[in-house]
Design goal:
- It is a single chain.
- By secondary structure, this protein is α+β, with helices and mostly antiparallel strands.
- It has helices spanning 2-47, 64-72, 146-151, 153-158, 186-189, 196-208; strands at residues 76-82, 88-92, 115-117, 129-133, 161-165, 170-182, 210-213, 224-230, 237-245.
- The chain has one domain (52-245): Sortase, Chain: A (Beta Barrel), CATH 2.40.260.
- The protein is globular, with a radius of gyration of 22 Å.
- 30% of the residues are buried.
Length: 246
């Protein structure tokens, strides 16, 4: 009986240590996540001095703060800002789509990374469709609020515009669709649209896959910007907010 009692006590001790280990690991992961979000907030605060003012009726105005940011960080292309939203960040472009996936403008590691323009897109947004990528952060930072466009009608109804600030001009975006597509969707992420048919196919695909659609009158003669983020950390599907460049 004494041996059985000692064995049970040993098992209880092992279980207690295992539970303590699980609790310690869980606590560390929570702290690690909080720390990353805090670092992301500090990075956003640090760059806030370069945030341009909204000038929807002055498309040709220079954005001196963006020019200053580019002078300091040459990979920066411009600044993206959405109406009444926490989405207000600079975005970069390099020779690939990996450099800033988990890196700040200073080159420091950060899970939130930096917004980036697809390496195949023209930096002046002269393409038919340009794609900007960002992470879906659970605290709502970066592109974390794109899911609200799909899941909350009131949010969709009240957030219709955005701006891309380039050094010498400002582009106004009018959002007309939020869609959910697979990560390798060739129509959305193909970038190349050589003829009118391919452009019309793009618009038809957007409407067909739309979670929400707003009829603003779009055509193959327009130019568009897609803001892309994952639907979850482990999903192969993407939320894409589609805007027309006015």
């Amino acid at each position: 009986m004494a041996k059985k009692s000692k064995a049970k006590d040993a098992i209880r001790v092992i279980i207690v240590f295992l539970l303590l280990g699980v609790c310690a690991f869980s606590g560390w992961k929570v702290y690690e996540g909080w720390s990353e979000y805090r670092r992301g907030d500090k990075e956003k605060d640090r760059l806030e001095q370069y945030e341009p003012e909204t000038k929807p009726n002055d498309d040709d105005a220079e954005n001196k703060s963006v020019a200053e940011l580019i002078a300091r960080y040459p990979d920066v292309v411009g600044w993206l800002k959405l109406e009444d939203s926490v989405i207000s960040y600079p975005f970069v472009q390099t020779a690939n789509n990996d450099d800033y996936l988990h890196r700040t403008l200073e080159g420091e590691k950060l899970s939130a990374g930096t917004l980036f323009l697809d390496y195949r897109s023209n930096a002046d947004f002269s393409d038919f469709n340009s794609v900007i990528y960002g992470h879906l952060m659970q605290n709502g930072s970066m592109f974390g609020t794109l899911k609200e466009f799909a899941n909350q009608k009131a949010f969709w109804d009240s957030h219709k515009r955005g701006w891309i600030y380039l050094p010498s001009r400002t582009l106004e975006l009018e959002f007309f669709a939020i869609i959910t597509v697979y990560e390798s969707d060739r129509v959305i992420y193909g970038v190349s649209y050589p003829d009118k048919t391919s452009k019309e196919n793009f618009l038809a695909h957007v409407k067909q896959t739309a979670n929400r659609w707003r009829d603003i009158g779009v055509s193959a003669g327009d130019s568009f910007v897609c803001l892309s983020t994952c639907t979850s950390a482990t999903s192969s599907y993407r939320y894409v907010l589609v805007g027309k460049i006015n």
